[in-house]
């Protein structure tokens, strides 16, 4: 957890007065939001948009100004985590269930800074099961279509019920073992009726900051 904190705090150094900042979701983003809250108390003047209800509530508790997306035309920088990062900085995200909102905000950001610990680095994506957000209607049929792409699927649950996203949808976690053609797979998944979005983030990250167990931090080149 310490490696995530120091890496997140390094990412927050890129936040400057007057920016609109996207707030990610998850354990790494938690530390970034905490640091942003501290800087706001010290006089930093920014506005933010959140990728989840959870992150929005945390920001409000810390006194960080939060806007709705309808009030924003562009986002200067977004700081978020990832479940897996490959050598080309393609990502798998969605372990926290916020992949749709995360992708909408990432795609509208001038700069997406990804913060991870060293365990999230991988030569190829796929060890982490790929989350796919689907509508509840016909969920079993959509899941079957995903299975036909060559993966083992499981419907994400919580307390023996389907996990429901902030958008009222389900998540199917797809085990592809190793993803060879991430961009093509992203397209194939999103062409399935019933799929809302998937957790492949292709060529969206502009910076990747890695925290290591020894307390060091590295910004990848």
Mean pLDDT: 97
Just give the CATH class of the largest domain: Alpha Beta
Shape assignment = globular
Main structural class: alpha/beta
Write down the CATH topology of the largest domain: Rossmann fold
Which bin fits the share of residues in helices? 25-40%
Approximately what portion of the residues adopt beta-strand conformation? 25-35%
> How are helices and strands ordered from N to C?
HEHEHEEEHEEHEEEEHEEEE
Q: Briefly, what is this?
A:
Helices cover 28% and strands 27% of the residues. With 221 residues, it is α/β, with parallel strands linked by helices.
Describe this entry's structure for a reader.
The chain is of the alpha/beta class and about 220 residues long. The chain has two domains: about 1-120 and about 200-220, Rossmann fold; about 130-195, 2-Layer Sandwich (Alpha-Beta Plaits), CATH 3.30.70. About 30% of the residues lie in helices and about 25% in strands. The chain has a six-stranded mixed sheet, sandwiched between helices. The chain has a four-stranded antiparallel sheet with strand order 8-11-7-12, covered by helices on one side. Strands 4-5-13 form a three-stranded antiparallel sheet, with helices on one face. α1 crosses α2. The longest helix has 15 residues, at about 25-40. The two termini are about 25 Å apart. The relative contact order is 0.18. The mean pLDDT is about 95.
């Amino acid at each position: 957890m310490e490696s995530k904190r120091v890496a997140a705090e390094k990412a927050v150094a890129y936040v400057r007065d007057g920016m609109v900042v996207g707030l990610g979701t998850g354990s790494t983003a938690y530390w970034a939001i905490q640091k942003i809250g501290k800087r706001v108390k010290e006089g930093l003047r920014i506005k933010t948009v959140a990728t989840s209800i959870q992150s929005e509530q945390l920001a409000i508790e810390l006194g960080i100004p939060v806007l709705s997306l309808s009030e924003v035309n562009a986002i200067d920088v977004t700081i978020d985590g990832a479940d897996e990062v490959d050598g080309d900085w393609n990502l798998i995200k969605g372990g926290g269930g916020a992949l749709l909102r995360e992708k909408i905000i990432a795609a509208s950001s001038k700069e997406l800074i990804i913060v991870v610990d060293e365990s999230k680095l991988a030569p190829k994506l796929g060890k982490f099961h790929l989350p796919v957000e689907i509508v509840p209607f016909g969920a079993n049929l959509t899941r079957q279509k995903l299975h036909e792409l060559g993966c083992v699927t499981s419907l994400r649950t919580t307390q023996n019920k389907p996990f429901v996203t902030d958008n009222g949808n389900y998540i199917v976690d797809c085990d592809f073992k190793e993803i060879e053609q991430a961009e093509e797979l992203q397209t194939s998944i999103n062409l399935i009726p019933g799929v809302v979005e998937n957790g492949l983030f292709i060529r969206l990250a502009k910076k990747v900051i890695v925290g290591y167990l020894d307390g060091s931090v590295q910004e990848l080149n």
